[in-house]
Each structure stands twice: as C-alpha cells, then as structure tokens.
Design brief:
This protein has about 450 residues and is α+β, with helices and mostly antiparallel strands. It folds into four domains: about 90 residues, Beta-Lactamase (2-Layer Sandwich); about 110 residues, 2-Layer Sandwich (Beta-Lactamase); about 90 residues, no CATH class; about 150 residues, Heat Shock Protein 90. It has 13 helices and 18 strands. The protein has a six-stranded antiparallel sheet. A hairpin with a 2-residue loop joins β4 and β5. α8 packs antiparallel against α9, α9 packs parallel to α13 and α12 runs antiparallel to α13. The N and C termini lie far apart (about 65 Å).
C-alpha cells in the first residue's frame, strides 16, 4: 500500500476511528471494535507520543496471522487522544527465527552499572530520560542531547559520539558535563535501527565520573582526608546505582502490564501489576531518601547557593504533583503566574523541599479538599506556606515529625519517615528553615523560608 492509513485513538487509547486496513489489523490482533488498540507496536508508539507531547515516528514489524507487516508508524498527540498515520505497509513472510540481535544484550550490559539512562532519535534529540537527572525532565525531552550535556573531545581531539554516528556502532567513552552543574559524566550507547535498517538514534546510559575511585578513597590514613566519610559516600552511590536500575525495570514492566499495552488483560492481573508498580515506587523513594540522608549528614555537605524565584519553584513543585492531586481529587491552589519572590538557595534542593511538603499535604487532604500555597516576603526571608485540610498534627508531635524514621500513623502505608527530616536539614543548610503550625482537626501549615534577596 502506498497511500497512508489513518486512525485515531481517544484518551484511553481506544481505536475510535480507523481506515479499513488498520481496523482489520486491530481486529485480527484480538481487539474489539472501538476497544483498546490491540497491535502492541502501534500502542507503544502512541503512548510514547502522548507521554512526551511530541510526534514520534518509528519503523516496526507487526505480526498479522501468517505474515509479518513492515510499518512506518507516525503518532501525533491530538487533543486528549493520538492521531495515527501508517505508511510503507509492506507484507513479508513471517520469520519466527530471525537471527537474534546483540543490540538489546549490549544495552542490558551497559545499563547494569549506569547511574541514569537516556535515549535519542536520529537527530540526537532526547526521547527518554531517567527521572531525577534534571529538575524538569519533561522540558528536556525533545531537546538536543547537547542541551543536557556539554560533550568533550577525547585525547585524539574527536567526539566519540560523532564517530559512532558515522559508523553506526556502539560507543562507551563519550565524556561530558551536565549543563545544570550536575558534574562530569561518561556516556555509553548502542545504536537503534528502524525496520528498514536505517539509523534511528541511540539508547544509552550515563555514569557519574565522581563514582570512580577518587583521591579521597585512595588516600592513606593520617593524610588529612576523611577516608571513612569518602568510602561511605562511594558505598551509598554504588548502592543507589545497584538498586535503582532493577527497581526502574520492575516499575516499567509492571506499568507496561497494567496499561495493557500488549492487549486486553484480566482486571485482577492488571490490578496486581498496579500493586507491583506502587511497591516498586515506594522502594525507589526509600532509595532516594537513604542516598539523600547519607549526603546531607556529611560534615562537608553544602548546597549550591544561587539567586532564584521562590514563586517559580513553588509553581514547578505544584506542577509535578498535579497528576497525584487529580487522582486524589485534591485541588492545589498555586501562586498566580505574575507573582515573584526573589530568594537565595539551591534550586534543585528548594524544589525537593517543596515537593515533599506539598506531596504530604496532598496525601493527607480529604477527597474534594484543597491545598493552598502562599508566597510572601517577611522581613529578611522569602516564605512559602503550604496549608492543607487534613486531620492536623498534635502540638506535642510537632518536633517529632522532623526526626528520622518517625511516622505518626505507621499504618497509613505512605512515606519512609525521613522526608521531613531531610527537608528541614536542606532548608537550614540553605540559610532558611522549615516549621509547622497545626492542631488536631485543623489541618496543617508548613512554613518554608529562605533568605530573601
């Protein structure tokens, strides 16, 4: 077929409009008329396009009874749904024993020791990025890789990634520096190819060079270096890397099953997958907290102080929690777009504090309730107040909630017990503070302050 084949998916990825060829393929794949798209390859591309908010074009091979179809699928977000256009619809004999590619095995190898993962299209624009690499991961997707990392030449004066593009091979030694001051990294990647064998981008991993043995770890006792602290720091980072990747894969796999990307699934199985994903996220949050805990308790811990707009940070934190609040039927009343509140602090750490206390407010607010965010200057301090309509906190427990591993309601299944401890330590390290005003039945008001500019 030479003419493009079109279809449209609604917000729940139901195939609500389709040309005859696409409708037939959907039905032969086990889908129902008007049901969730049953062709896994098309579903995956559609979900990626809507998640990233950009057009995604990929070559795929889809099974169709006794044959395989080579398709070039273009998915474009359209309102709350996704518009599908398929070109190059070509049939070929089914091949159940294609030679196994080494690409996936190579990617599994390089990601095993990675700190974070990334993926690009053929123009080296980011299509995937691990959470936590930058403050606003969503704004980085669709941007060139070089906007995330400043690439460095090797000893021969070349960029390994450019040589890899020219030869369409794997590379392991591209060094660079995160542009947000996140430090030096080494990038590795394997090439991605479309169904026609054309280069379609890179799937890669990154390792922070600080994780390599440092002079502090190699120093002999008595030379003035705190080797115990350095070794504890290195151990914490290795533990983070060792746990994060398996948990990411568990969560990703469970969400893939829960979303029924590969076709309809029994409801109880989908619910089991949702439970697995939720448990994985809880463990991942615990890993994050333990790594942060280890970092902030080091005697040489010092946030990077810079000028920032605390209102902007507050709005960003609220935006990151928008989906969570909507799922809980809680409204976040955020500052107006024309407000500003200059302050001094570490942007990433201030965002971390606000995500913690706003997330707590959402979690403890009743369905139909509201969380209010107010920003103002009080003397020499910029102040953010986060108020909720939860059950409140007894004054006798105000000091206790900021202690390590303390949870007032251990049976509520939420939190790790160190979030507020970390948040207060961060606030004070930036020259501010985090306090609470509350009483039973009257909700809670958390007050975060930073030095005003």
């Amino acid at each position: 077929m030479t003419a493009p084949i079109h279809g449209r998916l609604d917000r729940d990825f139901h195939l609500v409009e389709a040309d005859a060829a696409l409708e037939g393929l959907h039905l032969r794949a086990g889908g129902a008329a008007g049901g969730v798209i049953a062709v896994p390859q098309i579903a995956t591309i559609a979900r990626l396009a809507r998640r990233l908010g950009i057009v995604v074009s990929r070559g795929v091979i889809a099974a169709d009874e006794d044959a395989d179809l080579e398709l070039w699928v273009r998915a474009e977000p359209a309102g709350e749904g996704v518009a599908i256009a398929i070109a190059g619809w070509a049939e070929r004999p089914a091949a159940s024993a294609f030679p196994a590619t080494t690409i996936d095995r190579e990617h599994d190898f390089i990601r095993a020791s990675a700190d974070w993962l990334w993926e690009t299209d053929e123009a080296l624009k980011l299509t995937a990025l691990s959470p936590g690499v930058v403050a606003s991961r969503e704004s980085m997707l669709g941007q060139p890789l070089t906007k995330l990392v400043t690439l460095a030449e090797n000893d021969s004066g070349i960029l390994p990634i450019l040589d890899a593009i020219a030869t369409q091979r794997r590379f392991d030694d591209q060094e660079g520096e995160l542009r947000d001051g996140g430090g030096l990294v080494r990038l590795s990647a394997v090439p991605i190819f479309d169904a026609a064998g054309r280069f379609a981008g890179f799937r890669g991993a990154a390792v922070g060079l600080a994780l390599s043995p440092s002079p502090a770890l190699a120093a002999a006792p008595g030379d003035g270096v705190d080797t115990d602290a350095a070794q504890a720091d290195a151990f914490g980072r290795r533990l983070d890397a060792a746990l994060r990747q398996p948990l990411d894969r568990i969560i990703s796999g469970a969400e893939h099953i829960r979303a029924q990307v590969d076709g309809p699934l029994r409801r109880d199985y989908a619910n089991y997958a949702a439970d697995i994903a939720a448990a994985g996220r809880h463990l991942l949050a615990l890993v994050d907290d333990l790594v942060d805990l280890q970092a902030i308790e080091r005697p040489d811990f010092a946030p990077a102080i810079e000028r920032l707009d605390l209102v902007d940070v507050t709005r960003r934190a609220a935006g990151l929690l928008g989906v969570k609040a909507a799922d809980a039927d809680v409204r976040i009343d955020r500052p107006a777009s024309d407000e500003a509140l200059p302050a001094q602090g570490d942007f990433r750490r201030a965002l971390q504090v606000l995500v913690n206390i706003i997330g707590n407010a959402v979690r403890h607010s009743p369905a139909g309730g509201s969380v209010w965010l107010r920003c103002e200057r009080q003397g020499q301090y910029a102040v953010v107040t986060v108020a909720d309509q939860g059950r409140g906190i007894d004054p006798a427990d105000h000091a206790r909630i900021f202690e390590k591993f303390e949870r007032l309601q251990p049976g509520d299944g939420a939190g790790t017990g160190v979030g507020l401890y970390i948040a207060r330590r961060l606030a004070r390290a930036m020259g501010g503070d985090l306090t609470v005003e509350s009483a039973p039945g009257q909700g809670a008001r958390f007050i975060f302050t930073l030095p005003a500019v």
